[in-house]
Structures are given as C-alpha cells and as structure tokens.
Write a structure and sequence with these properties.
The structure holds two protein chains of two kinds. By secondary structure, chain A is mostly helical. Helix content of chain A is 75%, strand content 0%. Chain A contains 15 helices and no strands. In chain A, α6 crosses α12. By secondary structure, chain B is mostly helical. Chain B has seven helices and five strands, in the order ααββααααβββα. In chain B, β1 and β2 form a beta hairpin. The chains are: A mainly alpha, B mainly alpha. Chains A and B meet through α1, α2, α5, α6 and α7 of A and α2 of B.
Chain lengths: 488, 209
C-alpha cells in the first residue's frame, strides 16, 4: 500500500507534495482552529445560560435560541468543514503522490467559505435563522459554502484520477465517498427544507436524514480515513486486514445513511420510517466492529508508542472513542432506549462524545502529524501538546459522563407524571454547571493548541531537527534563548 | 473502461441515492393525499397559519424556541406525554401538513408545546411567562424575552397603537425599579397569538387508532 511503502523515488515527491500543499492546508486548518475557538465560546455561553438564565440576558442577539445554533453550525461547518477539507486535500495528495491542483483557487475558496460561515452566523444571531436544525444559515449564505466545496470536490477527483499507483488505499475510498455524498446530501436537504419542496413531517424526516448524515457521511468517513492513515504510519505496521477494511467501508456506506430517522422516534411519523432507522442503526455494528478490529488490532504490540507520539495519542483516542460512541449510538436508536433518553441531555452528551472524542482528536492528530512536514519545522512546545491532550481527554469525558447520566435521570423523571416538570429542571442544574466546567477545560486545551499552531507557522531562524514528542522537554523560551545567543 | 474507472464513485453514489429515495422521496408520497377535516362549527382542521399567528410563528423560529421545546406528543404507553397533559392524543402527520419549516424539535429542556394553547389559553399567563419565566414558573431556566414588551411605570402613557386592554399588571413581588405594567410589543403580541393557537385537541380519526 502506498501509505506504508517507503521507496527512495517517493521521498522527493513527498517533499514536492507537501510544498504544493503547505499554504492550502495551513489556511484550512488555521480556519478550523479559529472556528473551534468560536464554537467553544458560543457553546460556553449557551451552557452558562442554561444554569444561569440571567447571564447576558438582555442581549437579544445572544439569546439561547440563537447562540445555541451558532455553536453547532460553527462547530460542524466552521471547524468540521475546514478541518476535514484540509485533511482531505493533504491526505489525498500524499496517497495519490500528486501535487495539489490549483492551490490559489483552493485558498480563495477557503477564504470565501470562512466569510460564508461568518455571515451565516451573524444572520442567525440577527434572527434570520431558517428554523431548520443544522441548516439554520440563511439561504443567501449557502452559495458561499457550496461553491468553495465544489472546488475541493474537483481537486479531489483530479488527484484521484491522476494518481501514480493503480492501487488505492482504504483512506482514499473514504475520502472519495465524502466528496460524493456531501454535495448530494446538502442539495437534497436544502431542497426539501429551506427551498420548500416538502412540508411538515416529510420535511422533518429529510431534516434528520440530513442532521444524522452530516455527522455520519462527512465527519465520520474523514475521521476513519485519518485513523487508517495515521495509525499504520506512526507505528510502521500495515493495516491488520484488507478484507475487513473492504467490509467496513461498504457496510458503513450502505447502512449509515438509513439511520437518521431514529432522531424522531416516538414522533408523528409512519412507523416504518422509524423502523428503518432502527434497523440501519443496528446494522452499523458491522462496520463499527470491523473498523474497530482493524484499528485496534493494528495497534496491538505497539501501545508503547503512545507514550511518545502526540499524533498516535490523539489518533488512538479518536479510534477508541469511535468504537465506544458508535456502540452507544446504535443502542440509543432502540425504541425502549429512546423512550427514556430522547428529548434529554443524553443526546447532547452522545453528540459531544462523537464529535469531541472521535472526530476532533483525529483532526488534531492529522495536524500534529502533517504540520511539521508542511512547514519544515517541529512543534515548538511539548508542554502545550500535553496540556492540549489532557484537556481534550478530561474535558470530553467529564462532559459526556455528566450529560449522559443527567439525561438518563431526566428521562426517567419525565416519564413519571407525578414528578413536577420544574423539579426535573432543578435536578439538571448542577450537571449543567459541570458541563460549563468541562467546556472551560476544553477551551483551555484549544487555546494551548492554537498557541502552538501559531508558533509553528511563524518563520523562525532556528529549527528543531528532531521531532517534538510528548516526553520532549522543549518550549518556546528555549527557542528564543537559542536565537538570542546566536545573534550575539 | 470508464465504468471500471468510476466503479468506487458509482457504488458510493448508489448508496446515498438509495436513502434519498427511501427516506426523502417515498415518505412524502405517503402524505400527498392528506386533506384537512371539517369541524362541527364549520371551520377546518388543520388550518394554515396566517396573519398574527404566522407572524408569531416567525418570532418563535427567530428566537430559537425549538432548541428547548418540542411540538410532538408521543402515543399513550410510550413516555408520559399524555399523562403529563401535554396533549389529549398522540400527534399524527396530518397535524403538520401546513408546517413550513417544521418545528417538531428533539429537546425537552422545557415542556412540549404541541398543544400549549389548549393547556394554557390565557394571554396574560403567556405574557408574564415570556417577560420573566420565574414569575409563573419558579426555578425555570428559560431566558427572559423582555425585549418583546414595553415596560411601564405607574402613570406612563400607553405606547402608540396599544389599547388599555393590552396592559398586563406585574404581580407586586416581581415589580422591579418601579416597573409595574407591561404591554407586549408587535412581536410579543404575535408570539402570544401563535402560542395560543398551538392546539392539537381536535380528534383526528387516525390518531385514535
């Protein structure tokens, strides 16, 4: 497989690939980290408002019902969209051994995409939301998001069909799939909701078909592609089983996009639509188990690398949480489970488990791996990497556990009509405070990463020649001191 | 040759084409034949929202009520929606035939609102609750929507366009800095009209099954 082979002729082309990708990918990933910060701040404001409704209470622009969708949309499109696009472009270029085509256009596209998200978010804060969950951005902002994505799709196809190897690696299948699924997904969903092709319950089904798939057919395949690339690459072993990777890919492709209707369990839908959602969700055990075996069995015997490699730490955290959160999600679709946890904070816990425990760490792992190769420099501070890792893991676990536990209790009380509703609200308040604390921890980690990222893209006179590992004692002050010594 | 080159792309495309057909196109066919029913008093149910109610629905959407309130009552024996008095019967697709965009919602930080107009028909209650939820619901974590109201001190003149009947007295223990009365502004009034119109009590036959 091209991802793990290491012939001499390739070394030159890797450097060429990275040179063609440096600016494009840096622009996308830098945008991703800025949007992650914005999304986390918006999430924090929303979180505080739920336990202290007076917080920023008189500002209509920041009312819970406006800042909450801005949190999700900047997380999923702002962070997710740009982090995944950067990953897609770099990974596909490396795996196809080709240069990234039309870099200037792709950078311009990245800028337009950012403007689109900014204007869309401002629109929602002004009260111009469409009212359709996950598609809240006003229609006039959509072309700014769609057109840049078309460039990425074309670039991806161009690289794929110009690849040097006839062979394709499993990561490439997932990346190709993303670029085919996502445009179909967005256009069908917009047509059915904001363009008004259907009304009422049919619109709700289309909405949640989209809401589920935007995670499942966009974030998930990109995350899996990253894990399939990074784990073998860092530990220097091939993927456990080729056949399982095939099964995992196609079963994921076939079943995931039928699962969305479980978001409306118990709702006014024909029973068959929900049954399909439950069946689709349960069938997801096949790809989840096969992909899990492939990732975890590849790791067996190499766990000691976790001590040193930042890339591997985040990648393995992501792939482990992928298995756990997918099990959780599949079980969550069952009617008996939904009777309790639907409409509660449990769902919120699950979403953050997946997005911040699986997708985000794999994107971080990609950045930790690729940025030194793209910039020709090493990460400046090992301490900041450690802070980032432990804040991500700790904040995410605290968040998920608090919300899932509170959600189950909340659901049980809601199903007992003798418990007054306001007692349930009061019960959740302490857990909502814990959520705010978890959000602060996650924010601290993001800021640490942001500082490190800012420093690695700066031109420095001195460069570290050995990689920065988790155990390396190395920080920014050392670099500055060395530079000063040199200039004297 | 070309087909061979496109094999992966084609397979991937078919997987999503299948679910678009199954979950987006086919359910819509099933709802095509829906017609409103005639009530005993000659009016029909459901009715499209128009005038004040439509304006109020736009306020409901712009304030993002959906992120904490659902509008769907689950059937008897599944959850406690009906026993909590959130509805007299389960919700069915016909209840939503005129809803664009849909506002079914998936979160119940607050109670379900599918029939809030039936359960809470008082405009005064809605006004006080929206102005400061803690007045009517102690311990609530709902935000205040005080910007949907004109606050009045004793002796203040009525805002332009308001009638004396629009004035709502704030209970004495909740009066702050001399503000004793409220008048909903245009948006506030519309939102209250919309909330009062949320009512799924009409017994559609398919909901009795």
């Amino acid at each position: 497989m091209s991802a793990t082979s290491d012939s001499r002729g390739e070394v030159v082309s890797r450097i060429e690939v990275d040179r063609s990708a440096e600016w494009v990918v840096t622009v996308y990933w830098a945008s991703a980290l800025l949007w992650l910060t914005v999304a986390t701040l918006a999430g924090l404001i929303s979180s505080i408002k739920l336990h202290s409704p007076g917080f920023l209470g008189n500002i209509e622009w920041l009312t819970f019902g406006r800042i909450r969708p801005v949190h999700w949309d900047t997380a999923v499109y702002g962070f997710g969209g740009t982090a995944a696009s950067g990953t897609l472009l770099w990974l596909q270029a490396r795996l196809c051994q080709t240069r990234i085509p039309f870099p200037t256009l792709l950078i311009a596209g990245g800028v337009v995409f950012n403007v689109g998200i900014l204007l869309g978010s401002i629109g929602v804060l002004m009260g111009k939301s469409t009212g359709v969950e996950t598609l809240e951005f006003p229609l006039w902002a959509m072309p700014l998001l769609v057109i840049p994505y078309v460039f990425i799709v074309i670039a991806n196809f161009k690289m794929y069909f110009n690849r040097r190897n006839a062979h394709t690696y499993v990561s490439q299948w997932y990346l190709m799939a993303v670029t085919i699924w996502f445009p179909v997904l967005v256009l069908s969903a917009e047509a059915c909701t904001n363009l008004g092709a259907v009304d009422g319950v049919a619109q709700a089904i289309a909405n949640w078909w989209y809401g589920h798939n935007v995670v499942g057919l966009f974030a998930t395949p990109t995350g899996i592609a990253a894990a399939y690339y990074l784990i073998p690459k860092v530990i220097g072993k091939p993927v456990h089983s080729y056949h399982l990777s095939l099964l995992g890919f196609w079963s994921n492709a076939i079943f995931y996009n039928w699962a969305g209707t479980h978001h409306l369990t118990g709702g006014p839908l024909p029973a068959w639509t929900i049954t399909i959602g439950v069946v689709g969700s349960m069938m997801m055990f096949i790809p989840v188990i096969t992909i899990g075996i492939n990732h975890h069995m590849t790791m067996v015997g190499s766990f000691h690398h976790l001590k040193t490699s930042p890339t591997l730490r985040f990648a393995v955290m992501g792939s482990m949480v992928y298995t756990l959160s997918s099990f959780q999600g599949a079980l969550e679709s069952l009617r008996s489970h939904q009777e309790i946890t639907h409409f509660t904070h449990y769902t919120i816990g699950h979403v953050h488990f997946g997005m911040y425990g699986f997708f985000a760490p794999l994107m971080f792992a990609m950045m930790y791996y690729a940025m030194p190769r793209l910039t020709g420099n090493e990460w400046i501070s090992a301490r900041l990497i450690r802070i980032h890792f432990w804040c991500t893991l700790g904040g995410m676990l605290l968040y998920t556990l608090a919300m899932c536990y509170a959600g189950i209790r909340q659901g049980l009380m809601m199903n007992d009509p003798t418990v007054p509703f306001l007692n349930i609200v009061k019960f959740t308040i302490p857990y909502l405070w814990i959520r705010t604390a978890a959000g602060l921890i996650l924010l601290a980690g993001t800021v640490a990463f942001l500082i490190n990222f800012w420093r690695i893209v700066q031109p420095h006179r001195l460069r570290f020649v050995t990689p920065t590992l988790m155990t390396t004692e190395r920080d920014y002050d050392m670099l500055l001191k060395k530079e000063k010594e040199l200039s004297q | 040759m070309l087909l061979k080159k496109l094999g992966l792309s084609l397979g991937v495309f078919l997987t999503i084409a299948a679910s678009v057909t199954g979950l987006v196109i086919i359910p819509n066919w099933q709802f095509q034949g829906h017609q409103p029913m005639r009530k005993a008093d000659g009016t029909q149910y459901p009715l499209p929202y128009f005038g004040e109610q439509a304006k109020g629905r736009a306020v409901y959407i712009d304030q993002g009520c959906i992120y904490c309130h659902s509008q769907q009552v689950r059937m008897k024996g599944y959850g406690a929606d009906i026993r909590r008095n959130w509805g007299t019967r389960r919700s069915v697709p016909r209840d939503y035939m005129y809803h664009r965009p849909h506002q079914l919602g998936t979160m119940r930080t607050g109670p379900d609102l599918a029939s809030i107009g039936h359960r809470q028909p008082s405009a005064t209650w809605h006004a006080l609750h929206l102005y400061d939820p803690r007045i009517t619901s102690p311990g609530s974590n709902m935000p205040r929507f005080n910007y949907l109201f004109t606050e009045m001190r004793d002796g203040d003149a009525l805002p332009v366009g308001a009638f004396p009947g629009d004035v709502i007295k704030i209970p004495p223990q909740f009066q702050n800095s001399g503000i004793t009365q409220l008048v909903p502004n245009e948006r506030g009034k519309a939102l209250i009209e919309y909330l009062k119109a949320l009512n799924q009590s009409f017994p559609l036959p398919e909901a009795q099954q």
